[in-house]
Amino acid sequence: MKKVKKFPPPLLTIALASSLSCSVIADDVLLAEKQLLSGLKAIQTLSVDRALEDFNGLSERYPNYKLAQLIKADLLALKAGQKSILDKVHQKNPKSVAKLQDEAVVRWQFSQSDFPNNSAFEQYVLKTAQQPHLVLVSLSESRLYFYERDASGQMQQVADYYISMGRKGGGKQREGDLRTPIGVYHIIDLLPDDTLPDLYGVGALPLNYPNEWDLAHGKTGSGIWLHGTPRDTYIRSPKASRGCVVLNNTAMERLLAMYRLPFETPFLIVDNLNNLQLEQQASNNQEAKDLVLLEVKKWLNDHYIGVDWNSVSVYRYPDEKDLLYVTFPANVENQLVHQYWQRGDNGDWKLVIESQNVNSGKKV
């Protein structure tokens, strides 16, 4: 990966805002997915003409949307009684067709999921500090959830988008394994469009992988970003990157132009959402959270003079048993403290890793 460089934050925002207003960007993202799901539902009910109407509209509006083009061609071939031609095309390009079909399956399954949209947030976010935004990626759903703090100080989900991940899925361990890491990270920089190859689309937000927990457990690799797609592609298949999280360019533009995320914005990447676990925790979830937070707060009061509890964030660390990630501003100006807490056999929480790093305070 290229070395991360610093660029003036406002430049990309101005360039993007000059071409499309944020409201139009938002409408385009919602419209495309709504029309896709409408077409897939029509196929489920064997309403071929209705499905063809949806996919014809999608392919005309987004000519680089390969899934829409494929399904449109399939429907036209079926209507014309040319299934043999359809079979030949699929047999000639089995890998490409399979990847596009995977996207259709993932998107449809997500639309039919019985998980509430905030289930991952409730499962992993115990307490947020005063940061204005939080990003949560659920690999099992191929979905990015975006949260913004409202006027009352509560985090509210304001957007969610389909994403692509590493070709081998989640759970990155070493450099070159083509997996997306699972953990709690932070946005650390902006790489604008004009500094990147077309592969990365309209911009990239690098993350701080490997973090201190990753390094302590021998994980290697670097260059894990949230970025866009090549301009000849509307969106990539569910597992298509070398480990990065990939949005389509329209959604990426919205994050960059509308929200201008501060560096150090929390970026959680989780995998499995356990429905049974959620049900079991439902009755005592808040009580369990309160007990954990009370223990962390007491320790901080005893060991850090003047720490404002409102500036402390606490997360359950994904894919790890009984691990917390805690972060807050250090006494040294423009530095953040990063802590990892693990629960022992006796049930007590113990600090196992602590570090500090510079917090730039800049926005993308």
Automatic annotation (TrEMBL):
UniProt record, GO biological process: cell wall organization; peptidoglycan biosynthetic process; regulation of cell shape
InterPro entries in the record: LD_TPept_cat_dom, Transpep_catalytic_dom
Record's keyword annotation contains DNA repair: no
Keyword presence, GTP-binding: no
Alphabetical list of SUPFAM superfamilies matching this protein: L,D-transpeptidase catalytic domain-like (SSF141523)
Involved pathway(s): Cell wall biogenesis; peptidoglycan biosynthesis
PROSITE patterns for the chain: LD_TPASE (PS52029), PROKAR_LIPOPROTEIN (PS51257)
A Pfam cross-reference name: YkuD
Domain called L,D-TPase catalytic: residue spans: 133-270
CDD domains: YkuD_like (cd16913)
Gene Ontology terms for molecular function: transferase activity
Record keywords: Cell shape, Cell wall biogenesis/degradation, Peptidoglycan synthesis, Transferase
Protein name, UniProt field: L,D-TPase catalytic domain-containing protein
